[in-house]
Amino acid sequence: MQVTRELFDEVMVPNYNPASMVPVKGEGSRVWDQEGKEYIDFAGGIAVNVLGHCHPELVKVLKEQGEQLWHLSNVYTNEPAIRLAKKLNDATFSERVYFANSGAEVNEAALKLARRYALEHFSPSKDKIIAFTQGFHGRTFFTVTVGGQAAYSDGFGPKPGAVEHCAYNDLAAFAELINDDTCAVMMEPLQGEGGIITPDPDFVKGVKALCEKHNALLIFDEVQSGVGRTGHLYAYMGLDVIPDILTTAKSLGGGIPIGAMLTTAKIAASLKPGTHGSTYGGNPLACAIAEKTLDIINDQAILDGVKSKEALFREHLERINAKYHIFSEIRGKGMLLGCAMNEKYQGRARDFMMAATEQGLMCLVAGMNVVRFAPSLVIPDADIVEGLKRFEAGIAHVVANDKLAETV
Question: What is the value of pTM for the model shown?
Answer without folding.
Answer: 0.96
